[in-house]
Design a protein that fits this description.
The complex is a heterodimer of chains A (about 80) and B (about 575). Chain A is built from four helices and no strands. Chain A has one domain (about 5-80): Non-ribosomal Peptide Synthetase Peptidyl Carrier Protein, Chain A (Orthogonal Bundle). With about 80 residues, chain A is mainly α. Chain A has helices spanning about 5-20, 40-50, 60, 65-79. Chain B is of the alpha/beta class. Chain B contains 15 helices and 28 strands. In chain B, strand 3, helix 3 (about 80-90) and strand 4 (about 95-100) form a beta-alpha-beta unit. Chain B is globular and about 70 Å long. The chains are: A mainly alpha (about 80), B alpha/beta (about 575). The interface of A and B includes residues 19 and 32 of A.
Amino acid sequence: MQREDIKEIIFKSIREETEFGGDIDESMSANDIEGWDSLAHVRIIFRIDHYLNTQIDLNSTYATETIIDLIELFIEEIK
Amino acid sequence: MPICPRIILRDSNMSSQSLYLGRILENFINYPDKPYAVIISKGEEDIITWSRLEIECQSIMNSLSNIDKGVVLIFLRHSSDLHGAFLGTMMAGHTPSFMPCTSVKQDPKLYWASHQKLLKHIQPSAIITSKDVEEEMINANLVLGDTKIVLIEDIKIPEKKLDVEIRGEEEIALLQHSSGTTGLKKGVALSFDAILKHAESYADAISITENDNIISWLPLYHDMGLMACMIMPAYTSTPVIHMSPFEWVGKPHMLFEAIEKYSGTFTWMPNFAFEHMALYSPRMPKKYDISSMKAFISCSEVCRPESFDKFLNAFNELGVNESSLHACYAMAETVFATAQTKLGKSAKRILVDQRDLNRGQKIRIYDKDTKLDTPRILVETGSVIQGLKVDIVDEDYNPLPKLTIGEVSISGSFIFDGYYKMPDLTNQRIISEKYMTRDLGFIDESNRLYVLGRIDDLIIVQGRNIYAHQVEALVSTIEGVRPGRMSAFGVYDSRVGSESMILVCEVASELNDDEIQIIKSNINKLLQSTIEVIPRKIKFVNPGWLMKTSSGKVGRKENKAKYLREN
């Protein structure tokens, strides 16, 4: 799976969970997206895991600051 | 070497403090090797026996022995140290209060800055904390004044056993701070008499004994975690298996894993957790045997039948059935439980018309197959437990007949003593010895209580209490937002099974998209770091959008209705 595919899945998961209607950019953080609170974070990760068929360690996702970091984390997870 | 406790013999003149703490001291002797609690953290399980708890209590008493009596705030992360710190503080004659620590998503500087006002108000005699949390406080330049810091890493077992301090009946046993909000959090002051009577009444209502096992992911700074999963079971000698809420939310199967391993019988959780568990069900690593459970008790948020149904459908094959799903109506002001559904029976559901759910209106209950344009199914919260009395009252505090919607007021033998150092607020809420809950509800012909929602501006997000006016005060400090020109309110989000917060703000119309984005980001960062809840939606509107009440204030109800019409 290419980086672009993973990015689209992550964007899709964020939109589905937060219902964020604006443009999402890789450089954005949770603070830039309405509705991305602690519970939404977990639910976003559940959704990404579901689409990518992964089971990422949730703790590692808390250390991410931007969506770029999240994309890189899932790229590593899939390897 | 274990310390032999002094047994307190009971007699008719014994204080409630002696009776409550005396039970714990008896358990030190009677059950030295029996588990008091099991703490699950990062995959490790740590068993605290009653004899170990005693040593930990004694060590805390030793550390507090030269500190003036007063309120002791406990800022500790999920760990085995929490229980000894709290009970040891009580035994040392101080008034303990659990406080939340920062989470990974919070900015420590903003978090501690928001607590400065609270510390000034409470003026605690001591703070029990750990080195890492103390470092955060120092980096945030928190001013502590005369408050002493007791580091959990430095506590020592006393050379000689210390006696439990017996205090006057009028003394406060503990403070329970409302969750979520910062600034001037309301500290609910509870006496030993109240916590003792509550423990006996609620234990009787759910028939809990030392042979049960409570499984909990609830934080102890929340009344549900503190009272249902620590203060009551310490008195009934019921072991509790505690896990971290942060670990549970990412790995919900931990709850079932612990139920299976420890033959769990009781767990309490807010409505959203039933939804969260059901959402997670396809990822469960195995089919756990959870048939030992007597009750999954929904509490701290309005109990939704659809959330029960999702949970039931997801886990029916594991042993969950309708009669194991229960509801409890609870609040810190009555220590915890006010009403509880009857164990062994399914919680009653009734069909009503949503349009009838107005204050002062008499409820019509329809046959479950009736077709209504605006149907709503309500779940009972059970019967009022012994020692309390609930009256449904009108705006002038006059009792209303059965099936009529009004404010839930509570009187009885374990009502709180007041909000700590807040006499005006206490007088507003305790009227003629009745606590006015600001909840709307009604009682049916069989004396079952139904709770519908709030009268005031409280928003309950995933079991956490957030006051809209406090959110608005925080957001008013953000540059670019017009101070006081905003409205925060709660809207039920069926996907999460909880209320979500919506924020409508007026901003100057000349702001561009980038500037708007910066304001949004700053609002989220501030609210995340202070109340740990961010809005589901922030709607920026031009000056003039917000509707005012007849008295000229920004009206939340009116603006919520306008927002819902437009979105």
